[in-house]
Amino acid sequence: MTRHFLTVEDLSRDELLALLDRADALKAQRTTDPGGPHRFGEALAGRTVALLFEKPSTRTRLSFEVAVRELGGHPLPLSSGELQLGRGETIGDTARVMSRYVHAVVLRTFGQDRLIELATHADVPIVNALSDLEHPCQALADLQTVRAHTGGLEGRRLVYLGDGNNVAHSLLVAGALTGLSVTVAAPVGYEPDGEVLARARGLAESTGAELTVTNDPNAACDGADAVYTDVWASMGQEAEAEDRVAAFRPFQLDRSKLDRAADHAVALHCLPAHRGEEITDEVIDGPRSVVWEQAENRLHTQKALLLDLLSRGAG
Ligand code: CP
Ligand code: NVA
């Protein structure tokens, strides 16, 4: 059975925790001995990983390319505009052909249906590098970051301020699997998808994570261990940007909200940030911000993910 990573739900709780442990080990090794031999430096030798982007990207594109290289594989960055996909070749046919050349495909796209279609017709692992529904690779890095700063996930609480879309969805599922409670504070009309929330709540029954949705961004922050935000207008929603500012303004991650969180609380943002909109300079540049480490952790967690999906007998 070919394994895919289209949603955080594609990992079990044990797989997810083991992936985070391996990401921590990879990070420790790269940090303490940057020039030394990489423990998994040949794990993807002879493997090519296509990185296909239908939306812009800095972190995902770079971290996947570096991850594949540092694991000894060959990354192949592509945009749909340069493929026949951009001229109407179907995703199914693209999947059939790509499976003959490459060993995995990482896709950033719009609808989740495009990822499902690709996975249905591919014989190689497909990884969701962000869709309108989920950003599961981001959630892996978020968990690694929160765990490092709060000493654990179970029994801790993360507040997400803003749009209840892709990043919030992946955090809800990731929290459900690991016992991290997640509060999504979103404006009316921008709450998380009901089906995603229901599925996440189902998963949370075995871990005790409390998953809540509120329209009050201030009370949501009270006592939180981590406060997280994301852009108000996601990629593909640029035309709505002006209208969204008014609705989202009260949800800005600013000093007053961070002060309501626990003393040890950290501030997160998946980036790119629109400074002065969803997050203030004071918070993102302040002492409780862990956003740069969070971005770095994309590299370590995606290496661990690629090892799980692709490497033979990596121990
Ligand atoms: N956080 C994130 O996915 O960033 P990019 O859009 O730059 O890849
Ligand atoms: N919600 C944002 C995340 C960017 C990493 C978007 O989809 O554009």
From TrEMBL:
Per UniProt, what is one GO molecular function of this protein?
A: amino acid binding
Specify the Aspartate/ornithine carbamoyltransferase carbamoyl-P binding domain's residue ranges: 3-147
- Pfam families from the UniProt entry: OTCace, OTCace_N
Q: Which GO terms describe its biological process?
A: citrulline biosynthetic process; L-arginine biosynthetic process via ornithine
Taxonomic lineage is: Bacteria, Bacillati, Actinomycetota, Nitriliruptoria, Egibacterales
Q: Where in the cell is it found?
A: Cytoplasm
Keywords associated with the record: Cytoplasm, Transferase
Task: State the GO CC annotations.
Answer: cytoplasm
- What catalytic activity does the UniProt entry give for this protein? carbamoyl phosphate + L-ornithine = L-citrulline + phosphate + H(+)
Positions binding carbamoyl phosphate in this chain are 57-60, 84, 108, 135-138, 270-271, 298
Q: Where would one find coiled-coil regions in this protein?
A: none
PROSITE patterns to which the protein is assigned, alphabetical: CARBAMOYLTRANSFERASE (PS00097)
Q: Where are the transmembrane segments?
A: none
Pathway given in the UniProt record: Amino-acid biosynthesis; L-arginine biosynthesis; L-arginine from L-ornithine and carbamoyl phosphate: step 1/3
Family membership noted in the UniProt record: Belongs to the aspartate/ornithine carbamoyltransferase superfamily. OTCase family.
What name is this protein filed under? Answer: Ornithine carbamoyltransferase
Signal peptide positions are none
Enumerate the residues binding L-ornithine. Answer: 166, 230, 234-235
Q: Which residues belong to any copy of the Aspartate/ornithine carbamoyltransferase Asp/Orn-binding domain?
A: 155-307
What EC class does the entry list? Answer: transferase
Record HAMAP family: OTCase
Q: Which organism is it from?
A: Egibacter rhizosphaerae
EC assignment: the record states: 2.1.3.3
